[in-house]
Write a structure and sequence with these properties.
about 220 residues; alpha+beta; OB fold (Dihydrolipoamide Acetyltransferase, E2P); 2 domains; five-stranded mixed β-barrel; 5 strands; about 15% strand; elongated
Length: about 220
């Protein structure tokens, strides 16, 4: 129901689909996950050829800020404003569940788009300054820290490493398999291939806060 307009639909759909799909997909879940809720339609995606005359739908997307802002943000604002316009107009005219109410619903599309453009325009600068890829990962190789548990061989433990002035908790394994005691100072050698933990070694010179990785044979 949208603003007093009650849709009563009785639909019987019988669909028989036989699909045979043979796909070979290689997915890197660590880096290639797409957040559809924050997906943004760029102007380059809409205007393939800048020398070609724009289609009407391209002009609509660009003018009403569906381009240049996260699509779901603009779309959600439009749907909410459209619903609000319909609710107010049907309440004022007392056209609940009438043909005139349906007319007001459809008539509210254009005004709601205009109000959406006015409402979303100030957000362009805000979203433009956001980093779409998030914070860059911190390279911990060569950083020193403290073991929070005892490890040896293939045993994994936890450690605390200070990077860019912030303490970070990591999972660690001994790089050479030797025992590393609780509260012993360590140095991070590298991250594991599956990115689940870090290889570490004991750090003997506690007067230094960095380590020369060229001394380690990988």
């Amino acid at each position: 129901m949208i603003s007093g307009i009650d849709f009563d639909l009785d639909i019987d759909v019988d669909v028989d689909v036989d699909v045979d799909v043979d796909a070979d997909v290689d997915v890197d879940t660590a880096t290639n996950v797409v957040d559809l809720a924050n997906a943004e339609i760029n102007k380059e995606d809409v205007i393939r050829n800048p020398h070609k005359k724009l289609e009407w739908w391209q002009m609509v997307l660009i003018y009403f800020n569906f381009v240049g802002l996260p699509f779901m943000f603009t779309f959600t604002c439009w749907i909410f404003i459209w619903w609000l316009c319909t609710a107010i107009s049907t309440s004022i005219t007392n056209s609940y569940n009438t043909n005139f109410g349906y007319t007001l619903l459809l008539a509210g599309i254009i005004p709601s788009l205009i109000l959406t453009k006015i409402f979303t325009t100030p957000f362009k600068g805000f979203f433009k300054n956001l980093n779409p890829d998030g914070d860059k990962p911190i390279d911990l190789a060569g950083k020193t820290g403290i073991m929070l548990s005892k490890i040896s061989g293939e045993k994994m433990g936890s450690a605390e490493v200070v990077a860019e002035g912030n303490p970070m908790s990591i999972y660690a394994k001994s790089f050479d398999g030797e025992t590393i005691s609780y509260k012993q100072t360590i140095v991070v050698i590298k991250q594991s291939d599956d990115k689940n933990f870090y290889w570490v070694l004991p750090f003997e010179d506690e007067n230094k806060d960095s380590f020369n990785l060229n001394k380690v044979e990988f």
